[in-house]
Amino acid sequence: MKNPKYKKILVSFLIGALILQAGFIGYSMIGNVTLGFKSKNVGVSPHTEVRNQIDSNGKSEATGVVKEDNNIKDQTSNEISQEILGLIKSADPDNYNRNVDNYRKLLKDLNVHIIYKNEIERLMKKGFKVPDILTSYTFLNDCYGNMNYLEAFLKEKKKGMEWADIFKEYNKKHPTFMPSNFDSMYLDKLLKTQDINQDDLIIADRVSQNAKVDFSDVINKRINGVSLRAINDQYKIVNGLEESPHLNVTGEQLERYATQSKLTEEEVIDALTISRKLGSSADSVLKSMKQGLSKEEIYAGAYLKKFN
Q1: In the predicted model, is pLDDT for residue 29 greater than 80?
Q2: Of 25, 32, 56, 249, which has the highest C-beta tally within 10 A?
Q3: What is the three-class DSSP state of 41?
Q4: pTM of the predicted protein model
Q5: Phi and psi for 159 in degrees, rounded to 5?
Q6: Higher confidence at residue 83 or residue 267?
Q7: Which helix (H) or strand (E) holds 135?
Q8: 250, β-bridge pairs
Q9: How far apart are alpha carbons 111 and 255 in whole angstroms?
Q10: CA 19 to CA 205: how far, in whole Å?
């Protein structure tokens, strides 16, 4: 028998950038303990606990790498040079305005680091199509993927591989993100540290797993004032956002969507996440999933409509 209180509880989900891989994963604050959960059920990963030393003033005791971090050229630019504008126009005159607008919007919306902007434009100079570059970058941004995949994806697309298949191959090789099992006292100290919030913990955890480095290495840089955008650049992780977008859904809404669509609650969460990220209606995404389309196929279709 279901607990009647459940329907009154507002479940706050944090949309992970790895939604294509993970379905839907976030962190939930329960008292002073931060736990990872998938769907409604709380669970933690088998990752080894990572402990960090923080003094009574909330300052990190990490040394050595901080000075180097603070010297990183951390900036963005939405300006597009005349050289690149001319290149975009000569490559596809009929879609020039659309391609320029989409590129400029991506630079702004995804807070693209200047180093990654330079890489995008290097690929334009190599002759890759603008819509394909923007598709590849957007996917990697959602996945917190390694920058080296940007050109690798484009080469596969140029050979004739479909985007949905490229995304599926990537997801097969990269395990689903699950929040690490951290000591509650350690997390409590981190959250009391000046300028450190729950989003910092979520993003640092994801970056540390994808870059295969200790969580403490990543969060120490953040504690010492390095932006998440600059930290990600250090590890060649594609994502410049400083926070995780939030999606609120009640247990009652979740149950109703599942009943109406005849999908599992986990599939409904996937659909709501996808609709939020793509700016599509929840009903349209639920309909696509009910028809048997995979998440990768839904994303590929949305990117095609957005960038082509």
Answers
A1: no
A2: 25
A3: strand
A4: 0.77
A5: -80, -10
A6: 83
A7: helix 130-143
A8: 10
A9: 35
A10: 15
84, containing H or E segment: helix 82-91
Tell me how crowded residue 71 is: count the other CB atoms within 10 A of its CB.
8
pLDDT in tens, 119-153: 999 999 999 999 999 999 999 999 999 999 999 99
Residue 103 to residue 94: CA distance in whole angstroms: 16
Phi, psi of 28 (to 5 degrees): -125, 130
Candidates 67, 129, 120; CA nearest to 94 is 129
Of 165-169, 275-279, 303-307, where does mean pLDDT reach its minimum? 275-279
Pairwise pLDDT comparison (286 vs 277), residue with the higher score: 286
Q: What region does 295 belong to: left with phi over 0, alpha with psi -120 to 50, or beta?
A: alpha
Mean pLDDT to the nearest integer, 6-23: 32
H helix intervals, 144-291: 148-158, 163-173, 184-191, 198-211, 215-223, 228-234, 251-261, 265-278, 282-290
The DSSP string of 21-40 is HHSSEEEEEETTEEEEEETT
CA dihedral 135, 136, 139, 144 (to 10 degrees): -150
The per-residue pLDDT for range 103-116, each reduced to its tens digit, is 999 999 999 999 99
Interval 59-71 mean pLDDT = 36
Structure tokens at 27: 């962190």
Q: What angle do CA 102, 105, 106 make, to 5 degrees?
A: 85
- For the chain, give every domain's residue range: 4-72+176-234
> What number is the average pLDDT over the span 176-194?
89
What mean pLDDT comes out for the span 93-109?
A: 97
Q: How far apart are CA 298 and CA 278, in angstroms?
A: 10
